Amino acid sequence: MPPRIPPRLAAQCCRATVGPSPQSSLANLFAAFSIQTRNASILANLSDNPGAQQKRIRLGRGPSSGKGKTSGRGHKGQKQHGKVRPWFQGGQTPLIFQRGRLGFENLRSPVMAEVNLDKLQEWIDAGRIDPTKQITPKELHQSNLVGTIKDGIKLLGRGADALKQPIDIIVSRASASAIESVEKAGGKIVTRYYTKQAIKRLVEGKSVNTDMPLPTGPEHVGPVLKQVRQKGFFYRLPDPTSRWDIEYYRDPAHRGYLSHMLKPGESPSLYFKVPPAQLAKQVKKKKAQKEEAKLWDKL
Predict the structure, then answer these.
(1) DSSP line for the chain
(2) How far apart are the first and last CA of the chain?
(3) Domains and CATH numbers, the chain
(4) What are the boundaries of the region Disordered (predicted)?
(5) How many alpha carbons fall within 13 Å on the CB side of residue 277?
(6) How confident is the model over 71-115, as pLDDT tens digits?
(7) Could you point out which of 14, 44, 194, 230 has its C-alpha 20 to 30 Å from the C-alpha of 30?
(8) From CA 261, how far away is CA 216, in angstroms rounded?
(9) Do residues 95 and 89 touch, judged by C-beta distance below 8 A?
(10) Measured distance CA(80)–CA(73) in Å, rounded
(11) For residue 258, what are the CA distances in angstroms to 84, 129, 240, 269?
(12) Is the pLDDT of residue 1 over 90?
C-alpha cells in the first residue's frame, strides 16, 4: 500500500510543481519532495518474520479445540492434579542406587586448546606464522591460531596431508598421527610441560621458552645468577610434578622433553618395569622368527 499524503501537503506539492514562481522549476521540485514524509500506515503493516511467533495452545476451551475438558492431562492422579519430578521412577528403587554411577568427571584434568595440522598450514600459507623459526605456544597465541589461554596446547592430526614444509614445533601434547605427519615432512616435534600461568608469561614476554628441564644442583647456581645479571630476570618454565605428567614427558613415543633422561632399555614408568624374564622371552621369540624365515628362504 503506497504511503498516504495529507491533502494540505498534496496541494503544496501541486502548487510547487504547477503554479508559476520566480524560482527555477528544479528548486520547486526538490522543495516539494522534501515535504513528503512516511505516514503511520507503513508502521501498521509491520509484522514478524514467518515462524517467529508460535500460536498459543488454549487449554480447557471446549471439546472442539482438542484440548478441552481434561486439557490433555488425562483422568485423575498426580500427573493431572500436581507435578511429577522428572527423575521419579514410579516408586521403585532408583536405578542410580541399584546400579551405581559409571565413571566420574575429573574436575582437575587440564583443559587443552586443540590445533590441527590443516589449520596450522593455513596460517603458514597466509604468512601469519613463520615456518623457518621454532613454533612455540607464544607464536600460536600471538597469531590468533589459539584464542583463550588454557592449560596447554595439543596438536592433532586432522589434515595430515596438508603439511607442505618441515616445521619445528613445541607443544604440550601431540597425537600419534600428528607426530607421524610432522616427522614425515622432515620436521621436528617436542612435547613440553606448560601451565596456564607459564603460557601467559610467555605471551607477555616475561619468560623465555626452552625445551630443557630446570637444572638441579649447586653447580648450576653460579651460571644462572650470571645469566640473570646479564639479561635481566625472566620466569623459568616449570617441570611436571605429578606421576602421570612425568611419565608422559619421559616417554620417547610422545617425543617428551624428558626422554633423554631414560637409560637404554629403561621404562618411562616410574614404578612399573619390564620383568627380565619377559625381556628374555621377547628376545627368544625374535630369534625364532628369524630362524623360521631362514628355513623358508632355503626351501
Answers:
(1) -PPP--HHHHHHHHHHHHS--SS-HHHHHHHHHHH----HHHHHT--PPTTSSPPPPPPSS-GGGSS-TTTTS-SSSHHHHS---TT--TTSPPHHHHT---S---TTSPPEEEEEHHHHHHHHHTTSS-TTS-B-HHHHHHTTSS-S--SEEEEE-TTGGG--S--EEEESEE-HHHHHHHHHTT-EEEE----HHHHHHHHHTSB---SSPPP-SGGGHHHHHHHHHHH---BPPP---SHHHHHHHH-GGGTBTTGGGPPTT--S-SS----HHHHHHHHHHHHHHHHHHHHHHH-
(2) 97
(3) 7-41 (no CATH), 109-210+230-271 (3.100.10.10)
(4) 46-88
(5) 0
(6) 999 999 888 888 888 889 989 999 999 999 888 989 989 999 999
(7) 44
(8) 13
(9) yes
(10) 5
(11) 57, 27, 10, 12
(12) no
- Phi/psi at 112 (nearest 5 deg)? -105, 140
What's the rounded Cα separation, in Å, for the pair 210 and 228? 16
- Which single residue is written with the C-alpha cell 646479564? 230
Grid cell at residue 221: 647456581
Residue 281's pLDDT band, with cuts at 50, 70 and 90, is confident
Buried b (16+ CB within 10 A) or exposed e, 105-140: eeeeeeebbebbbebbbebbeeeebebeebbbbbbb
Sheet arrangement for strand 173-174: 112-116, 152-156, 173-174
